[in-house]
Amino acid sequence: MRLLRVMGCLALLAVVAVFLQTPVISNVSAKTAHVSQPSSDTLSTIQKRGSIRVGVAVNAPWVLHDKNDQWIGLDIDLMQQFAQDMRWKVEFVPTTWSTAIDDLRAGKFDVIAAGLSVTPQRAALLKYTQPYASFALGLVVNRKSLGKDDLLTLETGTGKHRVAVLSGTVTASTAKEYLGNSELVEINDESKAIQDLRNGTLDGLIAEQPLPDALAHSYQDQLRTLDVSAYGKTAHAFGLRRTDQDLVDVLNAWLVYEDAAGWIQSREQFWIHSAAWIELM
């Protein structure tokens, strides 16, 4: 397995070398070449400085802080391994869901890795890698506030319940569509919201799975989930500037390689298919 990983890393590095050595076609104007040819500046810059800058925003379990205020999560693991395989260092740059795409386009970092949902609207502003997984929405509620059959109560706004959702996310837009009659509380810190949910200050939290199920499993005496599977699923991918096709190609090749090797599934087993990570928050 170690030999296969080394061979795979060398193959990826060879792909990067080809990208960086590809000449510009000489029979087109400089202006046309600039418009029609994807820029390799970001990949070249990463190679020269030896590090990749990754924009991250809290979105458990893809990106979160542990008890020592260190970045952890599925996307953190993926980016750390990608950088290691490419023989780069990795720098995690904090951003927010409201500003992440603008920050990417402004050059504050090279890639967004934060459980980023794929939408046509976002695709007009950035370029996605291939998706690495898809996730359904979930709703976890305080047992004292809502019973197992009380979803209609939230949808109609009966009882004026307070439901938290990460600000600036696709989930926030979905929550407004389905739960807009309740009081939606847009948050940036899921850890604080979880405490408020457990003590009854909040009545519910809508988020992508597995967070709702993991919370209900970990705090069974306080929390339960309501079935919102009808609200749909979203696919996750990494986001890059639209001019950075070379870096997209390298990331896609890495995703294919690690998926075939089974490494991505091994990390998903911990972060997606278990609730053990809740104790790290």
From TrEMBL:
Keyword Ligase: no
InterPro entries per the UniProt record, alphabetical: Solute-binding_3/MltF_N
Family of this protein: Belongs to the bacterial solute-binding protein 3 family.
UniProt KW keywords: Signal
Residues in Solute-binding protein family 3/N-terminal domain copies: 51-272
PANTHER family named in the record: GLUTAMINE-BINDING PERIPLASMIC PROTEIN (PTHR35936:SF38), MEMBRANE-BOUND LYTIC MUREIN TRANSGLYCOSYLASE F (PTHR35936)
Top-rank lineage group of the source organism: Bacteria
Organism listed in the record: Dyella dinghuensis
A Pfam family of this chain: SBP_bac_3
Descriptive protein name: Amino acid ABC transporter substrate-binding protein
UniProt-listed Gene3D superfamilies: Periplasmic binding protein-like II
